[in-house]
Design goal:
- The complex is a heterodimer of chains A (114) and B (111).
- Chain A is mostly beta strands.
- Chain A is built from no helices and 11 strands.
- In chain A, 0% of the residues lie in helices and 56% in strands.
- Chain B is 0% helix and 53% strand.
- The termini of chain B are far apart.
- Chain B is built from no helices and 11 strands.
- In chain B, the strands form 2 sheets. In chain B, strands 2, 4, 5, 9, 10 and 11 form a 6-stranded mixed β-sheet that branches. A 5-stranded antiparallel β-sheet of chain B has the order 1-3-8-7-6, with no helix packed on it.
- The chains are: A mainly beta (114), B mainly beta (111).
- The interface between A and B is medium-sized, with 26 and 23 residues.
């Protein structure tokens, strides 16, 4: 256990559904991240939040909408997804002031879009 | 953007041997480096981090930095089949807290 939890762990959704992924960190960190990892592909950074402010959006399609209500919680709202969006979605957190000790990942949500 | 390059592998080593994984980085000013291990279907797990001031050893794992040639190595001594995983190298980015990840090297330790 890294202190970062994600729910649900598995999600199957249709292309017309709306769902949300949730991430919570219990480490007292103030930076949170969403990554996408498709099968046999490298990590793709999607969004970065620093003290609840979005600081990075790496050209992610608008069908992915992040929300960070506070430093401990991060959501990824999904709507009208495509089958190619099926992937492992990883949340991570770190401390802005001590970034040199790394990021800690949650277990991920395995998303399948039918 | 600080680029991080890794050979995708797979790197195959026999059980008990030393596995050597390398990663090159583009920014000569980079100061903090990380190695993550990722088992298939699981999330990355931080196994070591080092700073520009020296190498680090932790059990069977040693991380070494070669600043002149801009590469970081991870050595795994007495490799075990349970070490078979993808190893991700990362460098601390310009923000001071976000990391730039390499694509990972797949390691296979054969019994």
């Amino acid at each position: 256990e890294t202190g970062v939890t994600q729910t649900p762990r598995h999600l199957v959704m249709g292309m017309t559904n709306k769902k949300s992924l949730k991430c919570e960190q219990h480490l007292g960190h103030n930076a949170m991240y969403w990554y996408k990892q498709s099968a046999k592909k490298p990590l793709e950074l999607m969004f970065v939040y620093n003290f609840k402010e979005q600081t990075e959006n790496n050209s992610v399609p608008s069908r992915f909408s992040p929300e960070c209500p506070n430093s401990s919680h991060l959501f990824l709202h999904l709507h009208t997804l495509q089958p190619e969006d099926s992937a492992l979605y990883l949340c991570a957190s770190s401390q802005v002031e001590t970034g040199e000790i790394g990021q800690f990942f949650g277990p991920g949500t395995r998303l399948t879009v039918l | 953007q600080k680029e991080v390059e890794q050979n995708s592998g797979p790197l195959s080593v026999p059980e008990g041997a030393i596995a050597s994984l390398n990663c090159t980085y583009s920014d000569r000013g980079s100061q903090s480096f990380f190695w993550y291990r990722q088992y298939s279907g699981k999330s990355p797990e931080l196994i070591m981090f080092i700073y520009s001031n020296g190498d680090k050893e932790d059990g069977r794992f040693t991380a070494q930095l070669n600043k002149a040639s801009q590469y970081v190595s991870l050595l795994i001594r007495d490799s075990q089949p349970s070490d078979s995983a993808t190893y991700l190298c990362a460098v601390l980015g310009d923000s001071g807290y976000a990391l730039n990840f390499g694509k990972g090297t797949s390691l296979l330790v054969t019994p």
